[in-house]
Amino acid sequence: xxxxxxxxxxxxxxxxxxxxxxxxxxxxxxxxxxxxxxxxxxxxxxxxxxxxxxxxxxxxxxxxxxxxxxxxxxxxxxxxxxxxxxxxxxxxxxxxxxxxxxxxxxxxxxxxxxxxxxxxxxxxxxxxxxxxxxxxxxxxxxxxxxxxxxxxxxxxxxxxxxxxxxxxxxxxxxxxxxxxxxxxxxxxxxxxxxxxxxxxxxxxxxxxxxxxxxxx
Length: 216
What we know:
Number of helices: 2
Helix content: under 10%
Distance between the termini: 17 Å
Low-confidence stretches: 1-8
């Protein structure tokens, strides 16, 4: 896809071109974003610190024991840590409430109160956070550590691809040797694409038989 407002300057009277660019702008995807990867919803974010909690939290989970701002994951001195944010029911590790920041150096299971359990594991420059117990069981969040320019590149769980999140948008790139079959919104057939693909709402990609859907 190519989107640049400077294109309009080439044909300033072309109403059709303006309408097309306006439609592309409406479909442009910004981070954070949720995709459906192989039939599973995966939420990607490059916001750190990331708050775990109800409703408008960065990593949102439902549960009667979950506070609105329950816990926080941060990057401190080059390592990920998790800490409680004064929640009503505590943040648990191995069933015990934590009183200070705990380093995430490998797979870690935490509880947000007593009815939500999440498995956290390092994955490159980010963390995979899977809800294992609770109303959102099976939901996967991938939280990344942004580079100095604000961009973040993460592996797409279950797919032969990486996802890049930055201030301008979200893009998926198949790993070396793979290509994507891209079906734009409303199209009946797709085309083969290698390299970076900027995401638009309603598009569908298939990489190595794994379908990646961008919700409209």
